[in-house]
Amino acid sequence: MLTINKKEIMEQTGFTESVAGRIIREAKKIMVENGYNFYANKRLNRAPVDIVEKLVGLELKGSEGYIGNVQAERESMGVQN
To answer: β-strand 46-48 against 3-5: which pairing, if any?
Structure first.
C-alpha cells in the first residue's frame, strides 16, 4: 500500500500545511472507521494514497521507500511472491 504524508501533499497540490494536515487526519479517520485501528495513532503522519486521492479528487504519487509499502519494498529487494 502506497502512503503519503503532509509534506508530499503540499508539494504535489500546493495546499497549505494546515489543509494538508486536515486531509491526513480525515484519511486516517476513514481508515479507523474501516477497521484499521493502527491509524488511530496521533504520531502517525501518513495515510494511504488511494484514500487521500478520493478526498481531494486528484491523482497523487505516494512514497515507495517507507514502512507500510511492503510490496514496493519486496520488489526493490528482488523478492518473488
So the answer is: antiparallel
Per-residue pLDDT tens over the stretch 11-23: 999 999 999 999 9
Which has more confidence, 74 or 67? 74
- Side chain identity at 68, as an amino acid letter? G
Cβ-based neighbour number of residue 51 at 10 Å: 22
Contacts of 13 (CB under 8 A, 6+ apart): 20, 56, 58, 60
Contact residues for 47 (Cβ-Cβ < 8 A; gap 6+): 3, 4, 5, 23, 24, 27, 28, 31, 39
- Answer for the pair 13, 30: CB distance below 8 angstroms, yes or no: no
| The one-letter amino acid at 38 | F
The DSSP 8-state label assigned to residue 64 in this structure reads S
